[in-house]
Structure to design on (451 residues):
């Protein structure tokens, strides 16, 4: 009697684990390649999402194929197509004939989807040795995970000592709050530009707004610039009162190398197409509540981020509803007019709300009103760095200067009101574009100081 035995473990042939292995490999490989630049935890969400989605798709394909191994084979093919799309697009997007680019999304996606359907059709129709295919793909998937897993574990073990040392050297602010510390209101008007930008580019003279604030005791930084051109980086910098040396860009890199790049290139996950009425209601609610927080008697830090005058454009100059543009942008004539109208509206609302905040406070509050950046000017995109920046710092002689940037905002507040001695940082502006947000270009400040 001849007994045939297989040198491969039975589970390799019968348990199709490979979709899960192929799903997490690109995430772990990219994370391992960039591990010195990003935090290890930045890969947790992509891995979790990948595993959940693969589990769901495996169940759906099992209903279609009525066989777990065939369903897993189809799913792994889909994953390979998904994860490789961005790499192929980056490789081919520059190929052109007499200036005509052959591989843009509209052509490459058709090739990709068509080829994928042909391959999946073959899997559906052709007889396949599923035991061999499952075993082979399981082995390949396991081997693929060895190197990135080793790199990540090695880096983690090596970094533990340095992290412990860093923790010992971390300084904790011991704020001297006193008996009645002032409330702090940090109000972000998204995309609100500096006065000279509003006047020169949009024909809006907001001097009434700024002069009214001056009359109330505000300091206006006439030559302010934002530290970053993107909202996420700008706020991360100001709220941590420091520059971003190694911002986590892992998920952005992952998006760039998968089929999700198609969605990313078509819409940068903005809110331009948000439901206009819902957006209006949320913004009006925040504005209404902002001047009514005096009922909170304890010392409070109020952070308000209003997506105004930034798109979507839903407010007229007096606050009435408008017909929103199909795509909210300041790059068109209509968009520029709607941006100006929203800037007028939010300026007038601030002149209504600020007196209520001051009058309702038992001790004069600290109020900072900033644009996280300015508007996008197609003819001079770096003007996006020119932002609104005003300070109400009562009962103190705070060193506000005309070229201050948001990174020094809380350094001055903590030094002036809470007994700290934080050094002011050099005011630097780093411009970048959405397509490459972490490629920074320093922007000088050519503004002439207001006399």
């Amino acid at each position: 009697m001849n007994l045939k035995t297989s040198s491969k473990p039975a589970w390799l042939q019968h348990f199709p684990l490979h979709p899960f292995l192929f799903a997490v490999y690109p995430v772990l490989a990219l994370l391992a390649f960039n591990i010195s630049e990003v935090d290890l935890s930045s890969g947790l969400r992509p891995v979790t999402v990948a595993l959940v989605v693969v589990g769901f798709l495996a169940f759906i394909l099992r209903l279609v194929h009525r066989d777990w191994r065939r369903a897993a084979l189809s799913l792994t093919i889909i994953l390979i197509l998904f994860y490789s799309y961005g790499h192929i697009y980056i490789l081919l997007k520059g190929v052109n004939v007499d200036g005509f680019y052959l591989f843009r999304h509209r052509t490459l996606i058709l090739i990709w989807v068509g080829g994928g359907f042909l391959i999946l059709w073959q899997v559906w129709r052709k007889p396949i040795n599923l035991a061999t295919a499952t075993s082979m793909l399981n082995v390949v998937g396991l081997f693929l995970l060895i190197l990135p897993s080793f790199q990540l574990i090695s880096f983690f073990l090596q970094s533990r000592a340095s992290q412990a040392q860093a923790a010992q050297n971390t300084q904790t602010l011991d704020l001297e709050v006193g008996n009645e510390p002032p409330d702090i209101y940090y109000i972000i008007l998204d995309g609100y530009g500096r006065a000279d930008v509003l006047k020169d580019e949009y024909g809006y003279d907001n001097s009434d707004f700024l002069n009214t604030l001056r009359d109330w005791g505000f300091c206006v930084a006439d030559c302010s610039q934002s530290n970053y051109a993107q909202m996420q980086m700008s706020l991360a910098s100001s709220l941590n009162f420091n520059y971003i040396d190694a911002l986590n860009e892992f998920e952005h890199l992952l998006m760039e190398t998968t089929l999700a790049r198609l969605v990313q290139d078509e819409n940068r996950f903005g809110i331009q197409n948000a439901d206009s009425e819902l957006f209006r209601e949320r913004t009006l609610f925040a504005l209404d509540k902002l001047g009514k927080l005096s009922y909170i008697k304890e010392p409070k830090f109020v952070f308000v981020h209003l997506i105004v005058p930034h798109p979507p454009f839903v407010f007229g100059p007096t606050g009435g509803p408008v017909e929103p543009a199909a795509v909210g942008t300041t790059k068109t004539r209509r968009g520029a007019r709607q941006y100006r109208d929203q800037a007028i509206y939010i300026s007038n609302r601030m002149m209504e709300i600020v007196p209520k905040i001051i009058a309702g406070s038992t001790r004069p509050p600290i109020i900072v009103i900033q644009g996280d950046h300015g508007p996008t000017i197609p003819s001079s995109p770096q003007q996006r760095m020119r932002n609104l920046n005003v300070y109400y710092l009562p009962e103190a002689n705070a060193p506000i200067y005309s070229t201050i940037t948001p990174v020094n905002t809380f350094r001055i507040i903590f030094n002036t009101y809470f007994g700290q001695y934080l050094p002011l940082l050099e005011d630097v502006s780093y411009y970048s574009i959405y397509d490459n947000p972490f490629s920074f270009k320093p922007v000088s400040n050519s503004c002439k100081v207001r006399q």
Remarks:
- The two ends are 103 Å apart (CA to CA).
- The chain has 14 helices and nine strands.
- The first strand starts at residue 96 and ends at 97.
